[in-house]
Amino acid sequence: MKKSIAAEIVLFTYLSVISCWLMSCRQNTAHKTFTFFRYNEMGDVTSLDPASARSFESEVIDNQIYNGLVQLDDSLRIKPCLAKAWEIAPDGKIYTFHLRQDVYFQDDSIFPGGKGRKVTASDFVHSFFRLFDARISDATTLLENVDRVYPGTYQGFYAPNDSTFIIYMKRAYAPFMNILTMKYFSVIPIEAVDRYGLDFGEHPIGTGPFQLKRWERGDRMILVRNNHYFEKDKQGTSLPYIDGVVITFIRDAETSFLKFLDGKIDMVSGILAINPREVLTPDGQLKDEFRKKMYMQRAPFIKTDYLGFMMDSSKNDVNKNPLCSKALRQAINYAINKEDIVRYLRNNVGIPANGGFVPPFLPGSKDNKIEEYRYNPDKAHELLAKAGYPNGNNLPALVLRVSSEWEQLAMAVQSQLQQVGIKINVLREQPAILSECVASGQCYFFKKSWVGDYPDEENFLSLFCTKNFSPQGVNYFHYSDAAFDELYDKAIGDRNDSSRYADYRKLDEMVMDAAPVVPLYYDEVIRLVSNRVSGLPVNSLNMLDLRYVTKTKEE
To answer: Whole-angstrom Cα distance, residue 318 to residue 329?
Structure first.
């Protein structure tokens, strides 16, 4: 019989007290209240190797275990982490990072005496070099501008001493500092890679505020406080404040939500997990009767939910694939009432995407005035006729493929398109099957979303580059425009923010004119948090940061 989570907490609390007492690592442990932050993860976590941190669910946990050179604050500004300072050469091709000298890896048996050693620049050389290995890394394309043949370096990385780490680039690449904030670029010890090899994701060792204590796949995960974590608050108190994190993996949203209401977990996140009709008013506010137990966090999310079209030129035959018609794709854009979708299906959580594909929360998109596709059924009828399908006549029924959780949205889209004469058949798939279908080019019309990994418009615009055609890349639409590719290449090499942002806006306009997608809404981060929890920040990447969290006494 498995022990209960409460029993585990008691056990780890007891062990933590004894350990801290023996090591004198903390003061007044006899009077300390030991607290664990608890949340549920409905998604799948298969590895805790930061090199393969593609899924959002894994990245959130990796954020507790690992650190990189730089990090983002809650306003998405780059700030120091393991690098205390850095310089970028005037030509944008040499990055020099000066490392902190007070950072140690988490204690583990791979080190002599089980005590974590100091992090050095050579650790970054080895950690970054792993990212070139496609067997384990999902970040290989993010390093395509690193100059791997630069003389005297190790694949473009160089550590002249223990505290200096240098990266050499083939060309100026403006988004690179933002990219370095991703969890892929965390530092790990070479000893762990030597011992565990491809199984390192089962035995994660980093420098972060928490470390893995127990992982029962599909059931729960327990992280405990890293007592040697290097960061302190403004008063000089060591972080993190809490003693650990308990993560459960309940797939059913209703069950997870009921556990939250019962106080068994401390937070639920995302509209699919919070039961909005029960707890939110029609305008998206927390109902009064729930305020005694919880509070709501809400912030812009750099995430675009969209409908996509396959536009492969090899299939550019409107008789076989009517969606090869630009006029038809534009008609579909005009026929969808995004305001109603956000208002009635999402309790006003999210912003109708009447602008471009890039969310309006990023530095270069805040002045974006794209307004091409506000709901306009008359315009949709006009474009249908232009496409050769007046009032939808002779247009075969289109198949919209969605994952099962988006059935309600798909039915709304089906109804709205029917009103202008466009017939839709909705095909519901399991998420993994739909992802494979989209990536392999078997879906002509599909629902997906894109979550920004880092706060630069390039992260969204890269979906439309010819070089990123799926299945090797993320251009699921097979949109291809030489003028777009040329301007994109110019923009990412421009270190002048003003001109680069102007080019980003032009690129977004080009995408919207070609209409390979229907942006539906720009999402919002929405969390319900127990009133027992404080100090939990919220940001537009929806990244969970537990360093400053405090919590009242466990019941």
So the answer is: 12
- Mark whether 384 and 506 lie in a shared domain: yes
The pair of structure tokens assigned to 117 is: 């050693």
311: exposed, middle or buried (Cβ count in 10 Å: 0-12, 13-18, 19+): buried
The CA angle 281-284-289, to the nearest 5 degrees, is 40
Do 308 and 447 fall within a single domain?
yes
Amino acid at 154: Y
Q: Would you state the pLDDT for residue 315?
A: 54
Domain encompassing residue 168 = 66-202
Sign of CA dihedral 53, 130, 86, 211: positive
3-class secondary-structure state, position 285? coil
What pLDDT score does 163 carry?
98
Shared domain check, 306 and 193: no
- Structure-token pair, residue 193: 């890679």
pLDDT 10s digits, 31-53 = 556 799 999 999 889 999 999 98
189 and 319 housed in the same domain: no
- Out of 174, 202, 230, a domain closes at 202
Provide the percentage of residues in the chain whose pLDDT is more than 70: 91
Look at strands 294-309 and 78-80 and give their pairing: unpaired
Assess contact for 219 and 226: CB atoms under 8 A: no
Among 202, 223, 246, where does a domain finish?
Answer: 202
